[in-house]
Amino acid sequence: MAPLVVTETFLPLVEAQAKARRLTPRVLVVPHPVGGLNGAELAGRIEAAAASLLPMADQARGTA
């Protein structure tokens, strides 16, 4: 199963759905700030998540 990027706000929902389907999700949890994010913050979080996910994808393909 591919890793999911989940905010800490939605983590309980993701875990409950996975449990109902008898799955163990691989998740990358990011903080969900009160008041939301501005564009620069959002871009930074996306870049950080991608940097974490790309090595996992390479490993899954056997290219790491």
Structural write-up:
By secondary structure, the protein is an alpha+beta fold. The protein has one domain. 52% of the residues lie in helices and 12% in strands. It has two helices and two strands, in the order βαβα. Strands 1-2 form a two-stranded parallel ribbon. It is flat and about 35 Å long.
List the defining traits of the structure above:
single chain; 64 residues; alpha+beta; two-stranded parallel ribbon; 2 strands; 52% helix
From N to C, what is the helix and strand string?
A: EHEH
Q: Overall mean pLDDT score? A: 80
> How many domains comprise the coordinates?
1
In the predicted model, the low-confidence regions spanning at least 5 consecutive residues are none
How are the SSEs ordered, and which strands pair?
Elements (H helix, E strand, L loop, with lengths): L3 E4 L3 H10 L6 E4 L8 H23 L3
Parallel strand pairs: 1-2
Describe this structure in a few short sentences:
With 64 residues, the protein is of the alpha+beta class.
